[in-house]
Amino acid sequence: MTQADLDAALRLYRAGEFATALVRANALTRLSPDLPTLCDLRAACHRALAAPEQAASLYRKALTARPAEAPLWRNLGAA
């Protein structure tokens, strides 16, 4: 996985193409399963797609890698 791959998935999310961004992020996760940014992106996609349980689970996973990151805690609370 390259930074360009991650940037493409983020662009999809920012464009409001949440389902497509989620598909891309899931594919990238298979290549880089331990990348917290992908976990956060997948969670944000699930949240935007009205799937709060999946979002919360992924935010919790991202928090295990980055427990001091306040936005993740905020996002978990909002999921």
Keywords:
79 residues; mainly alpha
At a glance:
This protein is mostly helical.
Describe what you observe in this structure.
The chain is globular, with a radius of gyration of 12 Å. It has 79 residues and is an all-alpha fold. It has 5 helices and no strands. The model has no long low-confidence stretch (mean pLDDT 92).
Name the shape in a single word: globular
What's the alpha carbon Rg, rounded to whole Å?
A: 12 Å
Order of helices and strands: HHHHH
Report on the biggest sheet. none
Structural class: mainly alpha
Helix content: over 70%
Query: Low-confidence stretches at least 5 residues in length (pLDDT < 50)?
Result: none
Determine the N-to-C terminus distance: 28 Å
**Percent of sequence in beta strands:** under 5%
Give the mean pLDDT: 92
Quantity of strands, as a count: 0
Count of helical regions: 5
Helix and strand arrangement:
Layout: H1 3-14, H2 18-31, H3 36-48, H4 52-65, H5 70-78
Helix pairs in contact: 1-2, 1-3, 2-3, 3-4, 4-5
